[in-house]
Design brief:
By secondary structure, the protein is mostly helical. The longest helix is centred in the N-terminal third of the chain and has 26 residues. The N terminus is likely disordered.
C-alpha cells in the first residue's frame, strides 16, 4: 500500500516538475528556490483538496441503487446556516469539529497562499471573492458528478460555501498577521537583491 502511495506522489511530483520546467523555459520567467517550494506545496495542497472533496466517487451500480432505495443519498441545502444549526443541535463535539471545523480548514491554506502566488489577491475583498468562487467550484463539480452517476453522493450545501469562504478569510488573516516576520526572513535570505521580495509580492 505504501509503495502505491509513494508511486502516486512521485508521479505527481514528476508531472509538477515537468510542467514547471516547461513553463519557465518557454516563458523565460524569473523564479527562485523559495518560490518553487511554495508552488510545490500549493500543488500538493490542491491534490489533497481534490482528493478530500471529490473522492471516493460511488460507481458501483448496486451501491447507487441502494442509496436511492434507502434514501441515504446526500441532501441539498439552500438555506443559510440550516446545516450548522442542525450540527449544533446534535450536541456532538466530534460532529462539530468535522462539519464546522473541517469546512473552515478546507480553504484556509488557499487564503494563506493566495497573496504569495498572485499579486491581484492582496486585498480583503478579493480573497472573499476567491474563497467563494473556489468553494462554489467544488460544490458545482460535486453536483455535476452526482448528475453523471445518478445519485447525490455529495450535497450542495450553502453552509459549505459560507464556512469555506470564512476559512479562506482566516488564512488570509494569518498571512497578513505574520507578514512582517515573513518579510524580515525573506530580506535576510535575499540580501541586497530583493529577488524573492519581488517574486513573492512582498514589496509594499
Amino acid at each position: 500500500m505504501f509503495f502505491f502511495v509513494e508511486l502516486h506522489l512521485m508521479a505527481l511530483l514528476g508531472i509538477y516538475l515537468t510542467v514547471t520546467l516547461c513553463f519557465f523555459y518557454f516563458r523565460k520567467k524569473e523564479t527562485t528556490l523559495i518560490k518553487q517550494l511554495i508552488n510545490l506545496s500549493f500543488f500538493i495542497y490542491l491534490i489533497l483538496l481534490i482528493k478530500v472533496t471529490l473522492f471516493p466517487i460511488p460507481i458501483d451500480k448496486i451501491l447507487i441503487k441502494s442509496m436511492l432505495e434507502t434514501d441515504t443519498a446526500a441532501k441539498t441545502n439552500l438555506i443559510p446556516f440550516a446545516t450548522m444549526y442542525k450540527t449544533f443541535d446534535y450536541n456532538n463535539m466530534d460532529l462539530w469539529i468535522k462539519q464546522i471545523g473541517g469546512n473552515i480548514l478546507l480553504l484556509m491554506p488557499l487564503g494563506f497562499y493566495a497573496p504569495l502566488l498572485w499579486n491581484q489577491v492582496k486585498k480583503f475583498k478579493n480573497i472573499i471573492i476567491l474563497g467563494f468562487l473556489a468553494s462554489f467550484t467544488i460544490e458545482f463539480v460535486q453536483t455535476l458528478i452526482s448528475l453523471i452517476i445518478g445519485v447525490t453522493y455529495r450535497s450542495f450545501d450553502v453552509d459549505d460555501l459560507i464556512l469555506n469562504t470564512v476559512g479562506a478569510i482566516l488564512g488570509f488573516g494569518i498571512i497578513k498577521l505574520f507578514l512582517p516576520i515573513l518579510i524580515k526572513v525573506v530580506k535576510t535570505i535575499d540580501g541586497e537583491s530583493e529577488k524573492n521580495m519581488k517574486i513573492l509580492n512582498l514589496r509594499r
